[in-house]
Amino acid sequence: MQHEDLINYIEQYITLSDADKQIICDSYKVMHLDKKEFLFHQGDRCETEAFVLNGTLRVFYSDDKGNEHVLNFALPTWWVGDITSFYEGSPAFMSVQALEPSELLVIRPEQKEELFKKIPALERMFRIIIQKHLTSYQNRFLAAISKTADERYMNLLARIPNIEQLVPQHQIASYLGILPESLSRLKRKLIEAKK
Amino acid sequence: MQHEDLINYIEQYITLSDADKQIICDSYKVMHLDKKEFLFHQGDRCETEAFVLNGTLRVFYSDDKGNEHVLNFALPTWWVGDITSFYEGSPAFMSVQALEPSELLVIRPEQKEELFKKIPALERMFRIIIQKHLTSYQNRFLAAISKTADERYMNLLARIPNIEQLVPQHQIASYLGILPESLSRLKRKLIEAKK
DNA sequence: CGCGACGTTGATTTGCCTCAACGATTGTGG
DNA sequence: CCACAATCGTTGAGGCAAATCAACGTCGCG
Asked: Fewer CB within 10 Å: C terminus or N terminus of chain A?
């Protein structure tokens, strides 16, 4: 059953009847992304919100100079989407692209409205998830202005120990807000300091 | 009528009956803060969510080294609070302090639950507000890693032209993520460049 | 009045960027 | 299947933005 991980995830937050589970399975469709394929592009409307079953994705913003900045990664059991675009229909602020072949469970805005009507308790879960995202970006911002790149890197490693195996190094550099060259030097410095 | 500004604000989002307005007026209590007084402290539970009627406040985080970082200001018609602490009862991530004598309309968690039951359309409004906050912090983060302090300062001035009259300069520096000395130099450079 | 809060200026240091070059690996078309 | 291109990580030299440390003037207020 492909929806098993999602059901388990939701049951961390709320209790589901068998009927609820069936509704959820019917609402979320399996979707495959090839490596480098996009879930949606910055500027387009984001019409899919996704739960990652497996694979790895990156969420990034392209600035006016054409530089890409990784806002986040998306790993199994994480949610990915542009909520403002998804709910309000505005152009997406960022792009989402698979770094590896990935399996997702996706839902569209109308279906999500339906789902909320059928299982109102889900509203609470998603509200909490949005709050966590908000806190996460507050922390990223604080780290960006008050910590060195070394500290931010160590911090990332502490949160996602196997991140190096999951995404290429220049994507990690982008996530940290530095250049690949700087991350390379930084890592060497850390290794030499450890001796 | 002290709740007038709040009613006007809400009516930008949803339509209110006279009965709704009465409910809102009953739910939000007027609160006064003296200069330097706190709405709540980092680490405490945030039991008040506030709508600013007038005055100026700062939202800030104290890091492990004791340095304070301004996450945001709060000006008339802005909301201020720690949503995660407010809803989940966790310790507040930041502190909120009045920079000037300020008038607020405040609500407590239980009252807000009541309010949502009576006027469900408000849930939608607050969801949109949270999304805007999320987008705002994404932008702050991106600016912090990809723009110079000059650009961030110009950006702030564009968004809040009279910010210099509202808050002292070292608070602005903190908001920008730089030291007061740097902001002072930066401003002189901009003035000289203009000549 | 005198103290503390605030802003300014100077000298020096540091963290990361910029530009450039170069191996190693991956992947792709002939 | 090989050859060549593209992608990725590393290393070096030099530069710049902002931090750091320190000193000083001004203003407002108890």
From this structure: C
